[in-house]
């Protein structure tokens, strides 16, 4: 082999390796682009299906003589039917967030900065396991375990705190009211908030924490000065994801809540606001005709609410980062 041949092979080797890298990049780019386009296509297909099936209920006049159009006929029109359901969906989700966010942040902070290393793994495992529990199990636990225990407590609250609007009215003895549904929802979204917030807390720059402690700050003051400012956008992002879960939760709410389909802020009585997802789960198996279209249109409204909440959340996060 001459020196000319060896030099030629030496020059060709990097070229072949570069070709392999270019092929890999092309394959990866194709797969990534196709996956992203597929997600958008699925969302567009879902929206199109809901719009086509739900448009007759949203825009056509009410037929009071048609038995399969009873949902709209009882409430005047589609918006009179869906309005209380939208209220119940948003009301229960906001209350669940009000309970879950402080607890989730506190647990995440304890795991990341106040517990020892042995407990961090155990607590983290338990929290992650809660996220794997099916919603039906939470619903059964709410009906069979929590509601009977909470019934006497609700009676006491209704007797002694009648002056507070949320606890006014006659409490439901069975405990299957909005308060129980809210507590079950808050437990279901707690793992999302805790897990994401814990990971964000652990990513706080170590130098920031040490600098705060070196200046004489206590552990809690260090958290206020270094951890919370760094994790603010991440906490908000985890709350938005949890809110999306709460808005779309179906089975647990449908099983726990004894709803009457009315707008009320009372949490302990038998008159409870129903959610869109819970109404669809309860009524769709027996619905037909225009009633089926009305429930599908309700799904379209829920789809729009969830999309709007996530879009607003992403916009606020992007703005805070800038």
Strand content: under 5%
Average pLDDT value? 85
**Overall helicity:** over 70%
The rounded distance between the terminal residues' Cα atoms is 61 Å
Derived structural class: mainly alpha
Number of strands: 0
- The radius of gyration is 27 Å
Listing every helix as H and every strand as E from the N terminus to the C terminus, the arrangement reads HHHHHHHHHHH
What features would you describe in this structure?
This protein is mainly alpha-helical and 322 residues long. Helix content is 78%, strand content 0%. It contains eleven helices and no strands. The chain has helices at residues 3-59, 70-75, 78-114, 117-131, 135-160, 178-202, 206-214, 219-248, 251-256, 276-283, 290-321. The longest helix has 57 residues, at 3-59. The chain is globular, with a radius of gyration of 27 Å. Residues 7-11 have low confidence and may be disordered.
Short description:
By secondary structure, the protein is mostly helical. It has 11 helices and no strands.
Topology:
Elements: H1 3-59, H2 70-75, H3 78-114, H4 117-131, H5 135-160, H6 178-202, H7 206-214, H8 219-248, H9 251-256, H10 276-283, H11 290-321
Helix pairs in contact: 1-11, 3-6, 3-8, 4-6, 5-6, 6-8, 7-8, 8-11, 10-11
């Amino acid at each position: 082999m001459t020196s000319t041949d060896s030099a030629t092979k030496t020059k060709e080797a990097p070229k072949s390796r570069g070709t392999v890298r270019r092929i890999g990049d092309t394959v990866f780019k194709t797969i990534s682009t196709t996956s992203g386009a597929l997600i958008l296509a699925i969302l567009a297909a879902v929206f199109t299906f809901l719009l086509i099936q739900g448009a007759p209920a949203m825009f056509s006049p009410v037929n009071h003589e048609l038995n399969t159009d009873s949902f709209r006929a009882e409430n005047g029109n589609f918006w009179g039917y869906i309005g209380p359901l939208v209220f119940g969906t948003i009301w229960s989700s906001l209350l669940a967030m009000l309970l879950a966010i402080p607890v989730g942040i506190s647990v995440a902070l304890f795991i990341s900065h106040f517990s020892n290393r042995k407990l961090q793994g155990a607590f983290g495992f338990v929290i992650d396991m809660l996220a794997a529990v099916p919603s039906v199990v939470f619903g059964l636990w709410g009906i069979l375990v929590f509601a009977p225990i909470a019934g006497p407590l609700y009676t006491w609250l209704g007797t002694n705190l009648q002056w507070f609007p949320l606890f006014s009215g006659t409490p439901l003895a069975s405990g299957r009211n909005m308060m129980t549904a809210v507590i079950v929802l808050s437990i279901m979204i707690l793992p999302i908030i805790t897990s994401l917030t814990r990971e964000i807390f652990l990513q706080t720059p170590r130098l920031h924490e040490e600098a705060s402690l070196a200046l004489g700050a206590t552990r809690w003051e260090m958290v206020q000065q270094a951890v919370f400012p760094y994790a603010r956008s991440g906490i908000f992002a985890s709350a938005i994801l949890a809110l999306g879960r709460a808005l779309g939760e179906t089975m647990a709410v449908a099983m726990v809540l004894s709803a009457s389909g009315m707008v009320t802020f009372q949490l302990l009585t038998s008159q409870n606001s129903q959610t869109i997802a819970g109404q669809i789960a309860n009524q769709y198996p027996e619905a037909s005709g225009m009633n089926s279209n009305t429930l599908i249109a309700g799904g379209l409204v829920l789809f729009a609410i969830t999309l709007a909440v996530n879009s607003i959340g992403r916009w606020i996060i992007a703005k805070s980062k800038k």
